[in-house]
Specification:
11 strands, Rossmann fold, six-stranded mixed beta sheet, three-stranded antiparallel beta sheet, single chain, alpha/beta
Length: 291
C-alpha cells in the first residue's frame, strides 16, 4: 500500500487519489439490482400491478403464460463527503502530516471511487466561518471541483455552531454521508450534527481520524501541549502520564464507538499514520462494492 507520506509528497491530489483508489477498484464489483434497464438478465412471472410494457408477448403466445423481462442495471448513490476543518485538524503526526492533509487524501480517494461508480458526489467543508458546499453532481467536471476545494481547505477555529450547520439538514435527501473528523468538540456538536444527518439522509459513515502520536502517546519527558482551538497550554511529564493517558484514551474510544453505533452510524477508527486502505475499505463495504 502507498503510504500517506508518499501520496502527500506527490503534490498532486488528483494523481494521489487515483493511485490510492485504483488498487481497491480492481477488486471491487459493481453493485447491481434487477430492474427495467438495458441488459437482459432473466424472466419472472407476471404479478398484478407490474408494468405491462415489460411483458414478453412472444413468450406468452408460445407458452400461454405471462412473463416479464428483467434486466440488471448498475445502482448509483448520492455520496456526500463532510470534512471537519476545525483547528484541531492541524495536529501534526510523527510522519509529518497533519490530520487535515491526511483527510484531504482520504476524501479525494473516496470521491474518485464514487465517481468511477457513477455516483453523484458532493462535498461540504465544515468551517466555523461558514460552510463551503459543493452540491452532489455526477458530471465529469465535479472531481476537479472537489479536488480544488480540498486542496485549498484550511483548518481554523472551533467546530461550527448549530446555526451555521442548519443548511445541511434543512431538507431530506437520501444519501450516504461520509464524515471525516477527529471528533474534537466542546460539547456534543459533532454527534448532534451526525444524528440529524442520520434522520434526514439515512446512512452515515463516520471515519474517526486520529494521529499515531495521539494513539500511542509517543512523547517523552517534559512536554508542553497547546490546545489548537482554545490556545490553552498544559505542561506534563509524558513518561509519568502515559499509562493514565492510555487508559483514558481506550475508555473514550470504546465509549465513542459504542455511542456511534447505538445511534445507527457506521463507525471506523482511522490511524493517520497508516495507508488509506482502512477508510477506503469501509466506504467500499458501505457502498456494497467489497470483493
Amino acid at each position: 500500500m502507498l503510504t500517506p507520506e508518499h501520496l502527500h509528497g506527490l503534490r498532486n491530489l488528483s494523481l494521489a487519489a487515483r493511485q490510492a483508489a485504483e488498487g481497491f477498484l480492481s477488486g471491487a464489483h459493481a453493485s447491481r439490482r434487477h430492474g427495467a434497464g438495458m441488459e437482459f438478465s432473466q424472466y419472472r412471472p407476471y404479478q398484478p400491478g407490474d408494468d405491462l410494457r415489460r411483458l414478453d408477448w412472444r413468450l406468452a403466445a408460445r407458452s400461454d403464460r405471462y412473463y416479464l423481462r428483467e434486466s440488471e442495471v448498475d445502482t448509483s448513490l448520492t455520496v456526500h463527503l463532510l470534512l471537519d476543518a476545525s483547528a484541531s485538524m492541524n495536529h501534526r503526526d510523527d510522519n509529518g502530516l497533519t490530520k487535515l492533509e491526511y483527510a484531504r487524501l482520504l476524501l479525494a480517494a473516496l470521491a474518485y471511487i464514487a465517481t468511477q461508480q457513477g455516483d453523484a458526489v458532493g462535498l461540504t467543508i465544515l468551517h466555523p466561518a461558514g460552510l463551503q458546499h459543493l452540491p452532489p453532481r455526477a458530471d465529469t467536471r465535479q472531481l476537479p471541483r472537489l479536488y480544488h476545494a480540498l486542496e485549498t481547505a484550511e483548518a481554523a477555529g472551533r467546530f461550527p455552531a448549530t446555526e451555521t450547520l442548519a443548511p445541511l439538514t434543512a431538507r431530506r435527501q437520501r444519501a450516504l454521508m461520509v464524515c471525516v473528523s477527529d471528533l474534537y468538540e466542546d460539547g456534543n456538536e459533532i454527534n448532534s450534527l451526525l444524528s440529524r444527518l442520520r434522520a434526514t439522509s439515512g446512512d452515515v459513515l463516520l471515519l474517526h481520524l486520529m494521529a499515531r502520536n495521539e494513539l500511542q502517546f509517543s512523547y517523552q519527558g517534559a512536554v508542553t501541549f497547546k490546545d489548537l482551538e482554545t490556545g490553552q497550554t498544559l505542561q506534563i511529564d509524558a513518561d509519568q502520564q502515559r499509562a493514565a493517558y492510555q487508559q483514558q484514551l481506550q475508555l473514550w474510544l470504546r465509549e465513542t464507538a459504542q455511542a456511534a453505533r447505538r445511534q445507527g452510524f457506521d463507525y471506523h477508527l482511522v490511524d493517520a499514520s497508516q495507508p488509506l486502505d482502512g477508510g477506503v475499505r469501509e466506504f467500499l463495504r458501505k457502498r456494497n462494492l467489497t470483493p
